Amino acid sequence: MRPYSYVRAQDVAGAVATLAEAPNAAFLAGGTNLVDLMKLGIETPDILVDVRRLTSERIEDLEDGGLRIGAAVPNSVLAADRKVRTRYPALSQALLAGASGQLRNVATTGGNLLQRTRCVYFYDTTTPCNKREPGSGCSAIEGHNKNHAVLGTSEQCVATHPSDMAVALVALEAFVNVQGPDGERRIPIEELHRLPGDEPQRDTTLEHGELITSVDLPPLAFSSNSKYRKVRERASYAFALVSVAAALDVKDGVVRDVRIALGGVAHKPWRATNAEEALRDEPATRENFRAAADIELEDAQPLRDNAFKVPLVRNVITRTLLELSEER
Amino acid sequence: MSTTAPATGTAIGAPLDRIDGPQKVTGTAPYAYEHRSDNPLYLYPLHSDVARGRVARIDAGDAEALPGVIAIISHQNAPTLADARDRELSILQSDEISFRGQYIGAVIAETFEIARHAASLVGVFYDEEPHDAAFSPDRDDLYTPDRLNAGFPTDTEEGDVDEAFSSAAVTLDETYSTPLEHNNPMEPHTTVAVWEAGDLTLYESTQGAHTTRRTIARLFGLDRDRVRVVALHVGGGFGSKGLPHANTVLAVMAAQMVEGRPIKFALTRQQMFSCVGYRTPTVQRVRLGADESGRLTATSHEVVEQTAKIKEFAEQTAYATRTMYATETRRTTHRLAALDVSVPSWMRAPGEAPGMYALESAMDEMAIKCNLDPIEFRILNEPEDDAETGLPYSSRNLVACLREGAERFGWEGRDPTPRDRREGRWLVGTGVASGMYPVFRMPGSKARITCEENGSYVVEIGATDIGTGTWTALTQIAADALEVSVEDIDLRIGDTDLPSASVAGGSSGITAWGSTIFGAARAFRGRHGHNPAAGDTAEAGMPDNPDTENYAMHAFGAYFAEARVDEDTGEVRVPRMTGVFAVGNVINAKTARSQFIGGMTMGLGMALHEKSLVDPRFGHVVNHDFAEYHIPTNADVGEMDVAWVDEHDPHVNPIGSKGIGEIGICGSPAAIANAVYHATGIRVRDLPITPDKLLR
Amino acid sequence: MDAEIILKVDGTEYQFVADTRTTLLDALRERLGKTSPKKGCDHGQCGACTVLLDGKRANSCLALAAAYDGSEVVTAEGLAENGDLHPMQRAFVEHDGYQCGYCTPGQIVSAVGMLEEAEAGWPSHVTEDLNVEEIILDDGEIRERMSGNLCRCAAYANIVPAIREVSGR
Hints:
The complex is a heterotrimer.
Chain A: E1 5-8, H1 12-21, E2 25-28, H2 34-39, E3 47-50, E4 59-61, E5 67-70, H3 75-80, H4 82-87, H5 89-96, H6 101-106, H7 109-114, H8 164-171, E6 175-180, E7 183-188, E8 211-217, E9 226-231, E10 242-251, E11 254-263, E12 270-271, H9 273-279, H10 286-297, H11 309-326
Parallel strand pairs in A: 1-3, 2-3
Antiparallel strand pairs in A: 4-5, 5-8, 6-7, 6-8, 9-10, 10-11, 11-12
Helix pairs in contact in A: 5-8, 9-10, 10-11
Chain B: H1 21-26, E1 41-47, E2 53-59, H2 61-65, E3 69-74, E4 96-97, E5 103-109, H3 112-121, E6 123-128, E7 156-158, H4 161-166, E8 170-178, E9 190-196, E10 199-204, H5 209-220, E11 227-230, H6 246-257, E12 263-266, E13 282-290, E14 296-308, E15 329-339, H7 352-369, H8 374-380, H9 398-409, E16 422-423, E17 426-438, E18 446-451, E19 457-460, H10 470-482, E20 489-492, H11 509-528, E21 537-541, E22 554-566, E23 572-582, H12 589-608, E24 614-615, E25 620-621, E26 639-644, H13 663-666, H14 668-680
Parallel strand pairs in B: 1-12, 10-11, 14-15, 19-20, 23-26
Antiparallel strand pairs in B: 1-5, 2-4, 2-6, 3-5, 7-15, 8-13, 9-10, 9-12, 13-14, 16-17, 17-22, 18-19, 18-21, 22-23, 24-25
Helix pairs in contact in B: 7-14, 10-11, 12-14
Chain C: E1 2-9, E2 12-19, H1 24-31, E3 50-53, E4 56-59, E5 72-74, H2 76-79, H3 87-95, H4 104-119, H5 139-145, H6 156-167
Parallel strand pairs in C: 1-5
Antiparallel strand pairs in C: 1-2, 3-4, 3-5
């Protein structure tokens, strides 16, 4: 870890301004991902701007019936919030399925969105990685890639995004509010994270100096009929093999509306729009759920070690939607 | 189940709280890194980034220029070792690189942060050569080692196995494989080394203070009397701290370079995957042949595993097969692939753990083929004597373990039909396996007993408690041996200033140190009687045991598991396990249970989670941290039912105990794998059993 | 680069200067001689470094000391009051909820913090009804909530009854 200066900004504007002038500065909130990466020499800021107490720690009702989550809200507090548990259970479950109690107490909403991939080659500065060093090669494509992506990959990168929370937020069509050197932005969450394409080094569409200030959950009439299902090798404290966040609106056995997002399959949380389309106005049956999943996975491109993710995701989508249709 | 004390004592068997308990729960028990050191320096190692070749050039300029950096060690300036024969330990003696991750130097600095940063600034340039780190059973260069670890013969043969197999009524021919695994004790390997005026003191995380001292003294050409190793509290080892590794050598070299200031070196978790030992991967072909009644006529267990080119370690994987069951003919073989990799070493139950997974899975498959209940099949093939030595067993109560376990677990009435029981989305199954672990006698321990002013007894022996409960168990043994109460005993361990003791390994602690203390107590009473004066002392070595020539001595166990498999995802959960053991006298019922659940849980990890992934292109383990190398979490462990049968064995040692540290793991992976088969109808012969292997 | 830091640790206030790269864990262990939190992985993957940080259980290895200037820390050593073991510590001794002891201080502090979280009604991954009023801390809940503390000796099957006893069930 290289030496750096540590500064506590006074306010968001000040924090943003500091970064705008320092191309190698970074924001520090909970630090549960950043400090981890700094110890390994993967992130090497020369200035750490502490923003942990700058953004909101509140979870507030919005006028339109949605919810505004301050970027500084710890993951555990967000998961336990009664409004979230009742109105957006998939979000609460997603948070509770992630990390550990200790990490959830410190990790923030903003930080969770920005955590970086867990690819073992990204994490090892002695192995080639296009995300760490563009042009150096991707060690995972021909290497150990059991945990890697089956959708949206490129020849440069097959990494997955590890956040559980982000998958639920994508299913709920959240908005990410951001303040940066050029002012404020409101980013639909599906546009926050990128597919690797030719620039695997860019995880998100944020510009340097843009700070997440809050996340808005729009109102969704059927969001209380939502859930998150995570599949992992051990019973706890592990990243997803795959995961599904889904919300279902069923009336008289017919799907009126549905939201599906997938984790563990791509460089970003994967909104399963094709599956959703195939299900709207269709009978809520196991066969239809499976068929919709198959449609979404049609273009999956398995690697040497992760072909199992395709039937696995199909099964989890099917099972999750079944449970949501039965639990109404 | 009962616990029995020898006729004259009341301490042995009692479930006493650990003597070091209060220190451990307050975090005040000092581990190696935590002994107060004045003005220390910190060491951060340099590892090779290539698997084979030479260090061509080292650019240490930027690192040396950092304020706070004291020195950079490399092969260019490291001290020459007096004895450089051990190629694992004789580091920095040349520019040669033998595996990726090998130590090629170190940074010594005023703080850990500076040392770590300086290490990242050292530029190392290599003359790289092609390397070979790809383990496979199909290689044409497999060779036969002279002997196996622990001195066991490499191959054995009884009768004509091939003939018996070809004429058997029922046959099985399957191949099982286990992955490369890392011990990963919670406390990383650690050395705090102080070199002062020719005296070396090491605060070391080791399973054997005396073993470490002997090795370091020899390597550096030092008088043993001028080397002291302190290992008061050790945060686990599981074999990886039983034999000294290169990290200790690196710390001593650094200490010599900065005379007077302590060098503190604790491995990072990532570095724990480089060169402190590991369990070899294995590929095991098991062939069984039986007659119509299910009696084994042919047993063949052929093992392929790996070793390092620089130093041989041949895991005794098929050893248990030599004694487990009666069979008319038998063959066991071991072949090694020598690779450009780091040296494998002990990991809990070396040999037995991977070997019994294969054997006990094969026995399960064979029982099914013979249409017999898997417990009855094993009992049918229970041997009279130990086939390997021809000797009678000093005691063998495997059948009692299986019967008692069956009752505790609820085995009666089990329907063997696979994939037949569902609860919601869970497929449910049960499995059983046997296990064994030999009674190892590590020679060379001595104990000293001295009477104190206040009538208490100081008992000194250089043993180590690595979590096994030694501190408490030996206190109980000493109390009974001297016929006093536990409160009258002050046991001192963990220091080479104390009499020599064997390493904490091979589940031998109680046999070795317990017998020694028994002998010392006898010597003390013989010399000083029952009313000694303050200062009266006696010392004795480990007593001989002529019975080891006349009996085969092993501990046995029966293992049961219930497995639930999610039919959508293949996730496996084990809500309950039962282990019943025949281990002779149990010294402390409370700490014994902990040893058993510890071994059984490690077996669960072996069955379902653990695998070190080697990328042969680079030659190192790529999932080198706790996020990606999965050991069981609390949520993975359900009900653990543990019991032991009454077993009186007058032959093993004066205490009648057999050692319990490793037997917990021996049969556990197979019991779980067999349960998964019963639940799903899918036989996975390749550990770990991860969801991808069970998806349909 | 250095920072001036004030930390209250186990009831005592300390003032010191440290490299900004120093983690809270290393500040406690190397600077302040508070060695009860242990370094098992240094990357938030094992929980051996767990302390109560401003009242909440946290991995001290991922907290930068400079970022917690003014904060309050409780370690396992600080749980014992007036030389008496904390009930959680006594329960671990009685149930043999440890073996080598290296993960133990982290387990105990984590358990204390966990009980408070359950008391506050926080659900967990295994809580079936998210909207339940009160958390019933059965064994499944204890196991899940304690899964951020790895134990290679695998004392888990004894840790759970120790915690259960203290939770009052």
